[in-house]
Amino acid sequence: MKSRDGNRLFRLGLLSAGMVFLLIFVVFVLKSWKFYFHTKPKDWAVQKDRQETEEEGQGGRISSKNILLISSDAASEEIIQRQIEGVRAVLDGTEAHLDSFHVRPYSSDDERDATDFYADMNAYLQKKGIIYDGVLVGDDRSLSLLKQYKDSLFPDIPVIFFSIRDQELAKSVSKNSKMTGYYMFSYMKETLDLATALQVRAKSILAIYDNSYLGMEEGKEFLSLQDQFPDYRFEGINFSQLSREEFIQSIENLDEESILLYLYAGEDEDGNRYPRSQITKLLLSKVSTPLYGHAMDEEIPGFLGGRIVDYRLMAEDATLLLTEILSNRVKIEEQPVTEDSPGTLYVSDRVLTAYRLSGKKLPRGCEIKGGIQDIWRKYRDIVIIASLPFLSLFLFSLYFVLSRMRSRSLFKVLEEENDRLLYEQDQLAHKLRYDYLTELLNRQAALSNMEELLKNSKEFSCVLVDIDNLKELNELRGYETGDLYLSAVANRLKKMERDYGAVASRYGGDEFLIVFPRAILQEDSLEIKEIQAAFYRSITVSGETVYMKASGGVACSEGNANPKEVVMSAGIALSAAKTKGKNHFVFYTDELRYRKEKINQILKMVERAIQQNAFYMVYQPQVECKGRKIVGFESLLRIRNEACSPDQFIPVAEQYGYITKLGKIAVEQVVRQLARWKDEGRTLCPISINFSSYQIYDDDFVDFLLYQMERHGIPHEYVVLEITESILFEESKQTKAVFKRLVEEGIELHLDDFGTGYSSFAYLPYIPLNTVKMDKSIVDNFLSSNGDVVRNLISIVHDLGMVVIVEGVEEEWQYEKLVEYGCDRIQGYLFGGPVLATEIS
């Protein structure tokens, strides 16, 4: 009885909750009704952005800003009006002031037009007497005219362009750091595809345009598409070359075998001007074939279809970008030129029906305006909202009926559901503890269980194993192969669990942790050999044998050490194993921890120096042997107020990905120093910059280097890059491409530290080196006892057409011998160590 009462109360509770939710919904709808039907969704975003702009406070406001909109006859009056509406939609409600300048029609001489435009704009600016904070440009002609005189008319003023049809023009203009914006796609081919799909019997395509800039440009684009429609005859009707009567005669005999495209026509041969409403009315009254539009700002009644472009929204996007730039929220230099072509391809259902054309072959994405789908799209929100109360009542009624029908079986269902939930709970608990692929303990379970597992074991060992190159295996042979390999390894580790009482877990994507309670492992322990065999043993997939290797770190506890600390120690040992070149097993020592902590200290020092701009350069002279004249310098990076040598912090920066940042810091400081010396009237010498092998994959390094030299006016021959032998042995496409571009730009490449690494002459003839720098070790090891080695090395380099610089020259006798052997330049403490730029006279 109690159960039945509880069931009844439960159902009544659900019903009451449904009624409460329905009441809340009705109240919400009533309160939101007015706002919902008076504000379009796209305007919400505009209002939100405007509000955010106004609330930015000092440094983020666009109040009292003067903005100029430039337009021309490259856009119709209707389009310009839409653009102005879009700009004002963003600026209304702010204190920003908007002016508009319309470029008058010029001659067809581009150079003369640009000169006339400059004169007109200059006169306009002088007459206005306003210094504009930002400029908007709304068409191709205005942008092409402004391009030449932007820095003269609007220096350091951001210019945002939009509605630009010439993508190449947009991208070329954006090379000016103060100009960016949006270009739009041309959808004329799309419109012709629509027309040919609808008028399958058509044999010719005609386009109407005039002699205006907009008309001629669109007419050229139309005729350029003829090759893409070889089965059709293309013909242009120039309204400006015909009288009204001649124009009517040219179109009134067109039939269903002709496709007629209206581009733009506003003036006839007699100079009579026609607004769009008049010319479209004339066309619709005289032609017997459907009319199509191109890049229209709205649907034109009577036209069959075409592309509608939302010029207002494009103007809003451009204005929003300009306000963000003026409010210092974004930098114009960081804004790339992008595409912005909002709009829709449509056909009119009414015109489609009038011409008895089938809409079954419409291009994908084409909307039928006036049809059932269009009506549903417009009113579906209203229909849904109005239907919700009735739907709720229906669901309530259905609930009552179903609840009565199911009342007898409810207890059984609940019991089954309870069993299912218990099963799923067990499954979930299993998934939370075990890895889904290997069925080994996962990381969280392994760590949480470790203290319980080892509570009675003061002596235990942890082995942390990382599979080498698992990522490459997945990429080359697929993730299925990688999963098969992981499963095979897991099965072998499970056998070790049974044989040795160990506990294995999948510690990460390619890491496994094996814990041996009550065991202290040694390097020759059988357990270590079995672990290595488990990972090294091959598997066969689809007839192919897969061999893999692994690196491991081993840490042991012989006292009361915290298990998690022992795992961390194993991780430190694993890092050391991978540093040695992978495929090694390393046992933890205190020395490894010290080195790890030392690396972390150096890493924090590098990060702090980057944040505090604490890096500086010192310069060591390079002296010509014969005349003892300084002919160059090598720049060396230092950290201010830190007793840390480059030999310490450079490898850490390379290992942790900071070397690309340091490389750019070095470039910037060296080029800036050259610029200072140039401004002081000093004679410049080339300065070499060390180039790490890790920088070869910094895609924008070369562009950054060239930009800095261009920015400070430094000729390319005064910057040299010193590379190491390790770069050359990669022989990657990236390496060859970078070297090729550097040499093409006039940047010399010097091979540094020759004699410390591979020291092979085999690759020297095939790489674009100018100079070989012999390491100090050659001087120390051979110059006094076996000078012929040095002499022969210098001779070979000379035979390859390269210059020789010998480093580490500290004594006069070394210098004299090197001169005797034909060395070109030397570098060393004999002539000076690394010094600050201020100490160089």
Please provide a written account of the structure.
The structure is a single chain. This protein has about 850 residues and is α/β, with parallel strands linked by helices. Among the domains are: about 190-330 and about 340-370, Rossmann fold (3-Layer(aba) Sandwich), CATH 3.40.50; about 430-590, Reverse transcriptase/Diguanylate cyclase domain (Alpha-Beta Plaits); about 620-840, TIM Barrel. Strands 22-23-24-25-26-27-28-29 form an eight-stranded mixed beta barrel, surrounded by five helices. It has a seven-stranded mixed sheet with strand order 7-6-8-9-10-12-13. The termini are far apart. Residues about 40-60 have low confidence and may be disordered.
Give a quick precis of the structure.
The protein contains 28 helices and 29 strands. With 841 residues, it is α/β, with parallel strands linked by helices.
Keywords:
841 residues; alpha/beta; Rossmann fold; Alpha-Beta Plaits; TIM Barrel; 8-stranded mixed β-barrel; 7-stranded mixed sheet; flat
